[in-house]
Every structure is written in C-alpha cells, then in structure tokens.
Amino acid sequence: SQQGEEDPQALSIQEGENATMNCSYKTSINNLQWYRQNSGRGLVHLILIRSNEREKHSGRLRVTLDTSKKSSSLLITASRAADTASYFCATPPYSGGGADGLTFGKGTHLIIQP
Amino acid sequence: DAGVIQSPRHEVTEMGQEVTLRCKPISGHDYLFWYRQTMMRGLELLIYFNNNVPIDDSGMPEDRFSAKMPNASFSTLKIQPSEPRDSAVYFCASSFGRGTEAFFGQGTRLTVV
User: Fold this and answer.
1) Which member of B55, B98, B102 has the closest CB to residue A45?
2) Which residues of B touch A7 (CB under 8 A)?
3) Residue B93: its chain A contacts at CB < 8 A?
4) pLDDT tens-place string over residues B21-58
5) Residues of chain A with confidence (pLDDT) below 50
6) Which residues of B fall within a CB distance of 8 Å from A98?
7) Are B94 and B31 in contact (CB under 8 A)?
C-alpha cells in the first residue's frame, strides 16, 4: 500500500519561478525523504527530514514537515529548465514496524518552461 | 563506487519466456530492494533483502516472480513465465541501514510482447 501521496500530480511553471509540491502520508514516520526522477532514469535522493525537524534546506531546496498534519512540502526556488523531472516523497516504516522498504507516492511531474 | 548497476537496460521478450534481471548493489550496503514502476501503479516495492536474506516479499505479484540474493554483491529478479502485463521498468536500489537514503540503479525496461 502507498504511504505518501504527492500533490499536484503535474505542475508547469516559468523558469525562475518557485515550485512547491506537497506530500501527505498516513502513518507515523521516523523520517520523510524526497527523490527526483529524470525521464528514463533512476530515482535520485534529494533530502531527508527527520520527524523531529520542521524545516531543512539544501541549496535551492527547502523541505518542511508537519507531523501533526502528516504532510510535507518541497520548495524549489529560482527554478531552472534542468529541474524538469518527477518528484517523489518516500517514507520508511516507523521503527518497530516489520518492514523496512521505502514506499513512494505517484509523484509530481514538474515542467519548467524556458 | 559506480553506484547500483542493473542489467540489462532494456529487455524485449515474448510472452511465456523466462526473464532474468540482475542487480549489483553498492558495496557495503546491507539492504537491497526491487521495485517496479508503471504509469498506472507508480513505484511498487516487490521484495527486499537485509544482509542477503529476503525479509518481505509481500509485494511480489505472483508466483511467477522470484528473487534471489546469493551474496552481498549480486541479486536477481526472475519472471517465469513472463506475460505482457509484466511490462514495466524494474528498479533495484540499495541502502546502508534501516530507513535511510536509497540509491537506485538506472532500471531495466522490460517489454513482454
């Protein structure tokens, strides 16, 4: 079963604008991770935010986490054409659970218009 | 390290044939995952191993699917017999530690005709 669900499914913006995508999840988590997938390629890890963190930055990426709402957001500032990709959130099972595999949502397909 | 290596990158086979997908994880990683990606279902976790031992195969769709990890540097996912609905991109990923960053291979695009 899928834990994370991204919103919107697709997003198209102009180069230079900021892009925001959201992730909602269902059960308690230890951390939440964001991945990027370029067309025809494997997923690449972007950032990991732990359950006791509220915000984390990495370059032009800013991730927030609200455990009370079971949601996270990924903000890409000053978008570039190279940011065109699908973005996924992923959650490992809460510690104490039986499984270890990351479960992914269906992703947000981001298109940056030049 | 060269990252997670999968082979072949593309596979086209006829329905009923056996298909074997291969994966070499990153050296030192103790978790290995097999995922399947389709437009309809997204990324599905099929099976994962910890220290070469299969832990959870509840995502394997049918008995036609099987996976092995004979040693820490090699895993296979086999489909026998293959069916057109098995057409998808299959990813292998590895990680060090539980719930940590996963490193993905480039995937194998399987087409069953």
Assistant:
1) B102
2) none
3) 42-43, 102
4) 999 999 999 999 999 999 988 899 999 999 999 988 98
5) 1, 96-98
6) 56
7) yes
Which one, of B67, B29, B79, B76, lies nearest residue B50 by Cα?
B29
What are the Cα distances from residue B25, in Å, to A7, A39, A79, A80, B48? Answer: 31, 22, 32, 32, 12
**pLDDT tens column, A55-70:** 999 999 999 999 999 9
Residue B21 dihedral angles phi and psi, to the nearest 5° = -105, 145
Tokens for A106, please give them: 């269906």
User: Which of these, A69, A32, A74, lies nearest to A51 by C-alpha position?
Assistant: A32
Type and span of the H or E element at A97: none
Tokens of A75: 């903000």
Nearest residue to A51 (alpha-carbon basis) of A21, A75, A71, A74: A71
Measured distance CA(A77)–CA(B37) in Å, rounded: 28
Q: Tokens in use for A100?
A: 């270890």
Question: CA-to-CA distance for A13 and A35, rounded, in angstroms?
Answer: 19
User: What span, in angstroms and rounded, lies between the C-alpha atoms of B60 and B44?
Assistant: 9
The CA distances from residue A43 to A34, A35, A64, B74, B103, in Å, are 10, 6, 21, 20, 8
Partnered with residue A7 across adjacent β-strands are A22
Angle B70-A95-A27 from CA coordinates, rounded to 5°: 115
A19: nearest Cα among A110, A114, A82: A110
